[in-house]
Amino acid sequence: MSASASLIPELEDVIQHGSQDKRATTVKRIANLFIDGQAHFSEDHIGLFDDVLCRLIVEIETKARAEMAQTLAPIANAPLELMRQLAHDDDITVAGPVITQSARLQETELVELARTKGQAHLAVIAGREGIGEAVTDVLVRRGDTEVMRNVADNQSAKLSEGGFSALVKRAEGDGELAEKVGQRPDIPAHLFRDLLVRATAVVQQRLLQAAKPETRNEIQRVLEKVSKEVDNSAPALDYAEA
Fold it and tell me: What's the distance, Cα to Cα, between the start and end of the chain in Å?
């Protein structure tokens, strides 16, 4: 008898009457069955695993859910609804691996998570590879300092002009964020200038030192222009009366 056949008679009983430990053991066995055969399963087969696992994980402890998330999140055809359910888990040890790795989460799902979950979830979303403008727009609107820095540091993240503008404003008084934003190659030129104007002298010098030669010349040019504008705006002193 195959392992899958041996599980079938006990499933309904476990779902209806099983203890947490019994559920966790059964979940692990079914997850292992999925992993062993996932390369050959159709979406219909995966849907069966999805239905069973979603029903079983409702009442298992956090540690068991987190182990399942760690195991299944990297698999490209992991059960879809299960991945969504785990990604929405309030415990970040469960949601984190799925948010970071699962190919099953589409941009709309990430936007929903960014709109509704807490800062720990937002910080993980901000570090996900290849997040788009719709996601980062929500992150920079709702995120705390850690989230903002994660977004700025994620070179694969796409940012809208509005997203960049929000980062530049938040970077005023936050030297670490200012450096991360200023080192992004995709920052619009006029917002880069605004960032330099708002930045402290220390941050300006750090950006200058970290920049590529062609960018370094542009930074130097902007700083010189800003310096001249400041000098020209200063009122001339009148010594006639003296």
Answer: 107
